[in-house]
Amino acid sequence: MASALAAVAPQFDDAEQQRSASNLGIWIFLATEVLFFGVLFAAYAITRVRFPEAFAAGSRLTNITLAGINTAVLLTSSLTMALGVHAAKQGARRALVGWLCLTVVLGVGFLAIKAVEYRLDYLEHLVPSVNFAYPGPQTEQVELFFYLYFFVTAVHGVHVLIGICCIAVIAAMASRHAFSASYFTPVDVTGLYWHLVDIIWLFVFPLLYLVSRS
Amino acid sequence: MNMEHLPLFPEAASSIANQVDTLYFVWLGLSGAVALAVAVMVVWFAVKYRAGSTADRTLVEDAEHHRRLRWIEITWSAIPLVLFLGMFVWSTEVFYQGATVPRNALPVYLVGKQWMWHVEHPGGEREIDELHVPLGRPIELVMTSQDVIHSFSIPGFRVKQDVLPGRYTRLWFTPTRPGDYHLFCTQYCGADHSRMIGRVVVMEPTAFEHWLSAHAGAQTMAARGAARFRQYGCSGCHGANATVRAPRLEGLFGKPVQLQDGQSVIADERFIRDAVLLPNRNVPAGYEPTMPSYRGQIGEEELLEIIEYVKSLDNVTQEVVR
Amino acid sequence: MSSAMLAEHDNYLYKEFGWWAWLTTLDHKRIGVLYTITITALFFIGGSAAALIRLDLITPHSELVSIETYNKLFTMHGVIMVWFFLIPSIPATLGNFLVPIMIGARDLAFPRLNLASWYLFVAGGLCAIYALVAGGVDTGWTFYTPFSTMFSNTHVFAVVAGVFVAGFSSILTGLNFIVTIHQMRAPGMTWFRLPLFIWSMYATSLILVLATPVLAMTLLLIAIERTFEIGVFNPALGGDPLLFQHLFWFYSHPAVYIMVVPAMGVASEIISCFCRNPVFGYRFMAYAILAIAAFGFLVWGHHMFVSGQSAYAGTVFSLLTFLVSVPSAVKVFNWTATLYKGRISFEAPMLYALGFVGLFTIGGLTGLFLASMGLDVHLHDTYFVVAHFHYIMVGGAVMAFFGGMHFWWPKITGRMYPEAWARFTALLMFVGFNLTFFPQFILGYLGMPRRYPEYPPEFQVWNVLSSAGASILAFGYALPLFYLAWSLRHGAQSPANPWRAKGLEWQVSSPPPSENFLTTPIVTEDAYAYSGTGSPHG
Fold it and tell me: Across the interface, which of C107, C109, C171 has its CB nearest the CB of A32?
């Protein structure tokens, strides 16, 4: 299995070219993700500038504790992912599988905490179009805030889920000796994707939860 | 210029139409010249250098040749660039003229909705899909939409402006020829978009006065606005005998207003509209954000009447108006 | 081992037969063929909508179809032609086929992503066709809010989903091309020895990769807003319908460069071959392609001069639009200069390429009218705009597409097409096209708005002329279906290099072997190393 996968694909001249191509490919893909989320951030920023008080009020109603925990969870998962890539470079198969599994667990943990957070939002009547009820002023604009909140965190959550699935697959492949110190490109590439998902969260968290909260 | 069945060119019936047409003709001339030059060169080369012809094809590819090539490239990049910049400056200037409403413009209010234009003159005259205007006076249209984005266009005047829900947009013109002119909706707005058309009727000033008196509503827009002002309870807080502390509206329109967050905004139509529908958006300094919202209660046309009323309160106290 | 020594059937078409072999192929050439078949089908669906539109517009009242149907026709025509024909056209068909071969590679960097991109395209197309069959969409291809989010009662979600999915097809194609061109050029193939077609594919791919995600998110935003009846484009909640327009045009303006830059690449290949001359000013042409792609991202607001956008923003967009026109003008001059001291012949590909140059020139010049703010006020949303973009998209991009299909037909299929029929078709298309769209410039200045099934009677004569032209054009588009299909069985067998053209694709057999090159080529000369001698026929 290892030799089959590590073999250079026929369109490439050598392993080095294959590795470079994969690397450039994932960076381009990450660029597309940045633009994809960029639109959301732009829409959020523009609407926020129009309604600063309403958005500040909305921010105050978000669950900063759970989101803070989630930030720590996701950052840790990036660490475990990086340690996994490092293990792959060393050819340490068992360590690699271990770190990847831990990353999956942390990723699932992120989604679980997010689910709890969503449930709490539902109980507090903060879900637009479903049961939104905000007694204060500018209620429609606060509802807009929560629309963006759910939209951004849901799209991010979908990316986390995709990442979890990819890492799980990579972990399974690793446990079957698919990688070695000289070939671990899929681990590398998945790691980069996971780091981007983390970085996006590092923008989402302050923008939605922190700015103007006080 | 217009043959009965084969029109080539619309009538020019506004003060800006000639400038727009001149821009058009200059572009026609310039692009015609470039297109012709390219076509002539292509045909000439195609003929002269067709395979089998005996034209001289010697090419010396030395440094001098490459130097000349670079100058050719620079020249035919620089010349279009300069021409374009000149046209840019001129056409932007024309645009700004069209966007700068003259101070003495006569306001007319327009509400676009699927699929008709509601027009209201300050004197209370109402029209649907028609707009009567006097010759030779600048007219300012203050427009909003009740539903989707429309666009108000009078080709004969060379004017057009999108009409948006939730906002006021403006358009001005000075008609220079009496007659009837097409008005079209030019932003796709649903099924009957192509039927949201009508005519602009430009009348001699005296004829226009007659038309106004023949079509005058029972009240002017401002008077209707005053009635709405009382009907919706605005005078309860903003009137002279109010017990609640609310901003006074006399002499407000068009002046700067200091807001709570330190910003200063002009009290224009948009400001009044937002104050009624989104009162916590622009809270004036020194006041509490206690005004209730009238979203869903006051329609677009009623809002325009209230705005006309507030405009009429220039330095006049409410007692005198009543 | 030269390509002449290959057995007659040692090529990619004969490698493996059967549906399964084709539907699971990883060969970029077969994927290019799959795309060609798919977009041809979609072209005729979009074209049928256009035919019905032009037939209906023969009379001032909408007598052929109801107004509601007309609104759906122009919407589906736009959606299908933009996203399911023009955007993929040259890149996914000719690009997929030629990019690896032109740079000396055995395939694209990611063959499985390439196949995935075709499946995504088909899935998106099926969504769009479902929407069509289920009753259509009436928002216009531009989906302006709040009409598309809050008022339209048609299958907006299905169409938007289809375009969303097809967008990922675009992104994967672009990603594949960028990596391939960067990483897999043969030894000696430096950047400035690349054919201009490759430069055009590279620049187009940059736009595909950077602009399409913006469209994807914008479509997602309107789909969700429509479904949950809340969103940032809704003015009743304080949202801004203009925000949608900014986001939409931020993608859709670069999109028009996705559609035309590949056509420019094709034109350079054909013109140099049939003039036996290198393209005049190669470096300037390459830089112009990149400049168009880069500046193309900065001009979107010229679609919004009368939208309620601020005059200051409009001024900046107008200036940038004038600037982006300069490299396009330079390219036209360079193509013209390529003819100088050449040895010119007029086979069908050359007729299409010259047609492209002429019609693109007119289309581009009329863009300047629209870039002028003062004039755009009068022309915006009239038939002048319709004529302008059809001159570029149809007179330009589609003619170049046909030119490229004819030029590389022998390479792709191993057969020659019938030359007389092809030349006749090129001329028919040119005449039909001009008759269809030139009257629309006049209608536009007269003030006839676009998207109108009914119009004032004084506009009828020009509309009738336009529709007459459309019937000629339709006939012109139908002809290649027949003679190209005919050529597959009865066309003359083509040698490796029927045009005696320069370029690595002509060094391999027609059709090429599956792996493209038996040995990796080593490049020692510049692109277009024509010496002004010889001819396409020896």
Answer: C171
